[in-house]
Design goal:
Oligomer: single chain
Shape: globular
CATH superfamily: Lipoprotein localisation LolA/LolB/LppX
Largest sheet: 11 strands, antiparallel
Strand content: 35-45%
Strand order of the largest sheet: 6-5-4-3-2-1-11-10-9-8-7
Number of domains: 1
Number of strands: 11
Distance between the termini: 28 Å
Structural class: alpha+beta
Radius of gyration: 17 Å
Helix content: 10-25%
Order of helices and strands: HHHEEEEEEHEEEEE
Number of helices: 4
CATH class: Mainly Beta
Length: 218
């Protein structure tokens, strides 16, 4: 297996882990937080997520060893997201709003997981009460807001931390610039976003994929 293929599988697997670090709905299980009025930035971060209708951005995905892959992220709420990796990486991660799918075109394999029970659901589902299971983390820059999402009663499920930067032109006045996921095996994956484009026309078929398990017509 070549190095790029090996790296892509490792990072894509970490991305799936990041999206599925919990296996039960956090909103139902997390302990009640302090009143949100005490954390206005938490409310603003949640509002910024809910204000996104469509988004396309370049992404850089890095594992804990510093190995990196690039690509393009496309999102359409509610629930749809696509990680299109750089040329030469035969992998695709896509959600149709119900399940997160990892497609490996080289070995013709498809794996699916429910997305509604994952922290990534906090990003994709406008009705999730993120403030119930999110906590602000201190930052050295007043223009940066860090929101940690975890189930305190189940630390084995892992943690995802979303990083926002105050930006007046972004939906809700804050721009999601990165998230960091730590799974139950302490595998860390960082996704950084750049070149955000909001409110663009994204057709629903952008979240479909060619199933490599189907026979190819000749």
């Amino acid at each position: 297996m070549n190095r790029l293929k090996s790296l892509s599988i490792t990072l894509a697997g970490a991305a799936i882990s990041a999206a599925l670090v919990v296996s039960t709905p956090l909103a139902a299980q997390a302990p009640a937080s302090a009143p949100s009025a005490a954390n206005p930035d938490l409310d603003r971060a949640v509002a910024a997520l809910r204000a996104i209708t469509t988004l396309r951005a370049d992404f850089s995905q890095t594992d804990r060893n510093g190995q990196r892959l690039n690509g393009v992220l496309t999102m359409k709420r509610p629930g749809r997201i696509r990680f299109q990796y750089q040329p030469g990486v035969p992998l695709l991660i896509v959600s149709d709003g119900k399940a997160l799918t990892l497609v490996d075109y080289e070995v013709r394999q498809v794996q699916r997981w429910p997305i509604r029970n994952s922290p990534l659901g906090a990003l994709l589902d406008p009705n999730r009460d993120v403030s119930r299971f999110g906590r602000l983390q201190p930052t050295v820059d007043p223009n940066v807001v860090s929101m940690e999402v975890r189930d305190a009663r189940h630390p084995e499920y892992g943690v995802i931390t979303m990083i926002f930067v105050r930006k007046a032109s972004a939906p809700g006045g804050m721009e999601l610039t990165a998230w960091v996921a730590l799974d139950s095996q302490n595998k860390r994956t960082t996704i950084r976003l750049s070149n955000h484009r909001y409110g663009i026309d994204v057709p629903d078929n952008a979240f479909r994929f060619n199933d490599p398990r189907l026979p190819t017509r000749r």
